[in-house]
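hiii, so i know i said id send this last week but things got crazy w the move. better late than never?? heres the sequnce for the chain we talked about at the cafe, plus the structure i predicted for it. fair warning i was half asleep when i ran it
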Amino acid sequence: MSVNYKSVIAMVDDALNLVEIVEEHPCPNGSEWVIYQYQRTSPLILSAWREGNKHHFVTKIGKEKLNLVPSLSAAGIEEVYIENNRVHIVYAGLAGGGVGAELRKGAKNVLEVNILEKGGGSRLGKAEVITPKMEKVIIGIDDTDTKEEGATWVLAHEIGLEVEKEGLGYYLDHTIVQLYPGNPNKTQNCVSIALSFAVYPEYKYKLDKFIKKLLKERSLSDETAMAVYYGLFPSKSMKLFALKAKKEMVKIEEAKSIALRNNIKIIPINGEGGIIGAVAALGLAEHHSLAPKLCEDIKL
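okay and structure toks below
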């Protein structure tokens, strides 16, 4: 078949014993069926969502037998385990739901696909997909422009592309976070940026050095700063700080306190003015519907 998944990425959080799987489906909205069926069928899956034709699954590490029923629970993930820095994902499904596992062969970042049972027609299909073990790193960036020129969101996106080009990992996401519009120190719209990456473990602590260098070279502001968070999910305290930074002025000391509590690395590039926005961006990096909103439009 010529229809293949474009990429499969598996990020592991060893402390939580969880894996986030991100797959780029070959069809524009075909991933909606996958999200619905996999979540209904798979006890291993804790949460699932779609962004365009990419689907995300957060799974436990382990094995759970699937109770496959046509139409009702037609396909899912049966097993996820880590071995020799590789993530093994076992998919199973009925009819077309079983063929999908085979179509991950040839996808970017997939090392190997082992067909366990050949699917198609009315048959059960089962396959094991193997990817490198990766980890998630989220970078908050703020204050790179001036009132005369520049745009932080554009520079951040360029940096994301440079990271992928350099081979350090995959550029997953770019989130624009609206902050307090009444800030007298703002350039104009008062936003900061969160960039999310899937990174190979050996590059985990090299990523920030690479981004720091690019910001130092390209930032136009004297107050540029970045913040680095290692993990799948920003904490509740990080989210609450970000929401507060939407509502009112906050002090740098509060941002530093949140960073200390959550093992966030703060890196001033040209100054400390951007620390608040950089830390705040991390808290809403995974909350795409909340991130761009003004405080008065958020109902929690």
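btw The chain has a mean pLDDT of 89. thought thatd interest u
miss u guys!!
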